[in-house]
Sequence to fold (129 residues):
Amino acid sequence: MKRLLMAGMLSIALIGAASLSSIYAAGPQDQGAGAPSDKGAGSTSPGASGDQGAGGMAQGQKLSGVEVTQINKDQGTVHIKNQDGKEETLKLDPSQKTQLDKIQKGDKVDITMVERGGEKVATSISKAG
Fold:
């Protein structure tokens, strides 16, 4: 009886661990209740994960060929205008700040962004093309 009980408890623990590992395998996500992303902001590339939960952009949204309208190296931000003419300000992930030396106002860029703590953050930025 003890063995059966222990085997059952072990099975439950393993199932729970497997469930949690699939949740955390996707990487860190915004846990706050941010505003939903603007799916019309730029063109979403096929295969890019624009899917989101109630907390905003969970996996990242890919914007292709958006125009850089302003760069603020001190604040680590870039202002963009998408194909619809809508302008947005994105904060750059610290790993991307060196990319600001490679782009300038008027350039077309490809950006992957996520929402962190209510802010849109560019996790990848490069010249389009």
